[in-house]
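Hey, sorry to bother you again with one of my protein questions. A protein chain has come my way and I'm curious about its shape. It would help a lot if you went through both lines with me. I owe you a coffee for this, so here goes:
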Amino acid sequence: MATPIEKTEEEWRAVLSPQQFHILRQKGTESKFTGEYDKFFGEGVYKCAGCNTPLYKSTTKFDSGCGWPAFFEGLPGAINRTADPDGRRTEITCAACGGHLGHVFKGEGYKNPTDERHCVNSISIKFLPAN
């Protein structure tokens, strides 16, 4: 799937930290309960750490207890979904740069408008506070 922002591996390595490169470009996962946004609930917008595309409003973030930041919906058109090869999970990526964000789960019984949990790596996102 083509993405609007395309860079070589070397170009991504030049602008991302080694941890960001591992998560965003190599589809890694940070350890649970270690990310800076897991228990953070400030008002603002979460952007892709790779390309600064706005992904989530803080009003869609909730405490799922899973150990990673959880959101019940992304901004319209900001996130792509792709079934993992094993068929058990659905990967979510930034629609602008293709960076790996995490996975989305549906039907877990969370009391939110979509009954979804976007389980996102903190390293994949940056928080922009509201004015």
Summary: The mean pLDDT is 94. The radius of gyration is 14 Å. Residues 22 and 28 are 5 Å apart (CA to CA).
